[in-house]
Design a protein that fits this description.
With 186 residues, the protein is α+β, with helices and mostly antiparallel strands. It is built from 7 helices and 4 strands. A 4-stranded mixed beta sheet has the order 2-1-3-4, with helices on one face. The chain is flat, with a radius of gyration of 17 Å. The termini are far apart.
């Protein structure tokens, strides 16, 4: 198996997803720090890897790059115990991963970024406050599901759980109080 190169920014939840998946699969990888705060993801050499200028990116072979954390998770997990064989369960994995990108990440990850990574809570306070309702709504969807299920897909651990865990476990860094979400915390 070839060594994967992971272009990553350590505080990133999206990068964390990929690191967690690789580690749980027992895959060795070379991690290459790309400091987004210093504009390193906007440099020409990085834009050749991901024209969107974002991390994470994996290089699976020289000049073969894959970006978008959830696409990377699907790629890495196919054929493993983290990705189901049945098309129904695969669709459920994708369902939760789409939820994570569109109903969870924008409301939980971005306040965390402003508060704990940029350290500009006061400057972004209005935007953070506007996201709070959507963030708690996303957490409530997760909480309701986890009250009756141990995992997000067919009661088995999958990359959907990895995707949702990444920003949920650091939600307090974005000002979220998880004390009322017992099922999430289990």
């Amino acid at each position: 198996m070839k060594m994967i190169k992971l272009y990553d920014f350590l505080p990133s939840g999206n990068g964390y997803k990929v690191r967690l998946c690789l580690t749980q699969l027992g895959r060795e990888f070379e991690r290459i720090e790309v400091n987004i705060l210093k504009g390193e993801s906007r440099r020409v050499e990085f834009l050749l890897k991901n024209p969107n200028g974002r991390i994470p990116v994996i290089e699976v072979d020289p000049d073969f790059f894959l970006f978008e954390s959830n696409a990377i998770l699907i790629y890495l997990s196919q054929g493993t115990n983290l990705y189901p064989d049945s098309s129904w369960e695969q669709a459920q994995v994708l369902q939760w991963m789409f939820f994570e990108q569109y109903s969870h990440e924008p409301y939980i990850a971005t306040p965390r970024y402003g508060i704990s990574i940029l350290g500009k809570e006061q400057e972004y306070q209005e935007a953070i406050t506007q996201k709070r309702q959507g963030g708690y709504a996303a957490l409530e969807v997760m909480e309701n599901h986890l009250r009756i299920h141990d995992f997000f897909v067919e009661n088995r651990y999958t990359v959907a759980d990895i995707a949702l865990f990444a920003y949920t476990h650091v939600a307090p860094e974005g000002g979220y109080d998880l004390s009322g979400f017992g099922a999430i915390q289990n």
